[in-house]
């Protein structure tokens, strides 16, 4: 019998006689045989061998020595032990601090101190805090030791002397003298207290004369005090401030 493909194609043409059917069958048989040969020719041969072809490798050994790894781009910095004490820092005793304060000298050099003073020996210090694990008992012992009081070697340092900047470094408070509300300026570089004459006159305070008393202000100008006040009732944020007898306010006509 005919193949299924050939029989289907012959039936689709509906030959009227047996001779036509045979002729059509031969034509379709030649057609399919020709297509089958072309298909087999173009299909690559399948390799059924279990061994796969390995890529070519150069078996020649490299006789050159192995290269050592390249050095780092930047050398490793040398670690130097941290020195807790700086030999360039001079420790002043309380007597030396008081002597320089009385003479109006800078704490770090022998020049006169002023708000615009730039100390050539000023230093910038860094405080390094290390995290340490301590027990509660050790912390309690340290707290009890710290509460015993300040030692006699405690140093006092002026804000302006430490900063060495051009700024005045003042702090402003709002206070009250009697029934008048006033502005109070606290300057770390000042050595005396001053009050405007109009405030003292308005409150009718007892003013003592202060002849030939010169005051050097921050801009270098020399001014004359108009008097001295023995007692000054000063109230700041609900707290009464008592001025010492050796640092009584001077009447100085200046503008804030």
From TrEMBL:
InterPro entries, alphabetized: Peptidase_aspartic_dom_sf
Protein name according to UniProt: Retrotransposon gag protein
Cross-referenced Gene3D superfamilies: Acid Proteases
One Pfam family cited in the UniProt record for this chain: Asp_protease_2
Composition skew (Polar residues), residue ranges: 35-63
Biased composition (Low complexity): 65-81
Domain of life: Eukaryota
Region (Disordered): 35-94
